[in-house]
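protien #1 (seq + structre)
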Amino acid sequence: MAQGKRKEIYKYKCFIDAVKFNVIKDLESDKTLSRNAIIKKYSLSGEIANRFKWSRKDNDTPDRVILTHFNLNATTYKKDEWVEIPDRYVEIAKQIIEANYKAKTNDILNKIIIKLEGKEEREIMENIKNVMIDAGNFEIKVMSGEKFINFSSKTFVGEMRNENKFEWIKYAGQKTFFETSNGNYNHSYEKVDKTNISQIIYAIDKLLNPTEEIYTVNLGYMLPISQLERSNELVERFEGQEFEYDTKEGTKIVKINRLIVIPEGFATANYILATEPLKMKGRVIFFDCGSRTINACEFTNGKLTNNDTMIYGTFGNLYEPIQKKYPSKSIEVIAEDLKNEWIDIPKEIGKTFTQGLLNEFTSFQKLWKEYHTVFVSGGVADFFNTYEYMYEMLPDNVEVLNDAGKTNVIGAYKILEEEINSMMEMV
């Protein structure tokens, strides 16, 4: 289907809720419900009240939506502009909704496009890219297929001179710049609350560099184990949604077909399971050590037997003590300097941090030193690979993963692929 035709459908997609209204009206047992009452009860778009003509003017009677025309300018500030909705769109939408009126609007929209393009749903799904994002406090890591990128999580909202020399997107009227020195980090512990839509859009766009004006992805997103109970909030915010944004190359629309939330810590275990399965034999523990948290997963012969999140990490337990030696530098600058090896971790601070880390391991599993293997991954692992005195404090059963900042993303991406493949098998 031509990009222009797709945009046409998106432009007046709330006709789907108008079709839903008419279908629901026939199914609703309470025939006294008003138009607004039905819209509210079934969470339909309030726009349908103004963007369509109705069979009756009396709002106290649940009249029908006239689906032939759609008002592009349903505001008091612009003159009405009525356009015709093709009967084929309405016909397909009605068939889908009559089979399941609870289906999400964007799922129905996808099915309409599939039918109009004359393709099978499985064929469409096979062409959707899978994208895995790990949004850390200091760094964003993104993967799709064999492609992997990482960039600073620092963002700047506002205007900059010579803006096209920098990376930016404009979403919801707000221009956000990335990878600039004057930006800010968001160090909130709650990942669900701090999830930045502009940052996610930029990560997807930067990795895929799509040439299409409209494209669709399945998105994987990592959360600490202790925050998984809030994963539905992310699913509701992103799954089935489309986001229109501007870049230096022009306007684009990214659609999130599916959102799969993957627990931190477990992702690294999945990486080992896929690459070195023999290492999963016996009792093993994975400690994914980041800037704010340690995500722990315990396995016995490959079966998950315990998991938890401990509040301990480089941000408050390593960078802050180092900052006291460099009072003119912010914690963010300390983190950047350590990453680039422009400064070193003082020995006394490194030892104190490592001992604190080992204490957290014991709080999770007091017998962890007797387990067959204990894997350490995450940003902290890089320090163990750099500073010998920190590494020497670890028991012999500890294996510090190489390229530890990437292994969890690879493992999470494999989980994402498995989840999407399972969904495709049901199509």
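ok now protien #2
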Amino acid sequence: MREEYSIQIELMSYDEIHVHLQESSEDFSLRTEQFLNDYAHKLATNAEFVTLRSKDDRLMGVVAFYGNVHPFAYVTHVWVANFLRGGGIVEKCLNGVWRNVESDVLKLSA
């Protein structure tokens, strides 16, 4: 049976980001706890997120981006659960980033 996922744009709390970074630190070689704390704070304060979540709200993928200089977005963090890699999830999440930036540009020009 195939599990269902939802992709959405959202803000994430420092605590949720911090837990995510701790759990995925093997993938990113985060060297120190201080770096992890600082990066989690920076993301929570400044970034928006396109997330892939399971039906029970588990984080299965995330793209963090800064969209404050329109019409540009700076992608700063990408992660997908190991068992979902290679299935086009990042492409779908990045499309969410582009749609978000495009809709903000349309609002600004209207």
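The CA atoms of residues 49 and 64 lie 5 Å apart.
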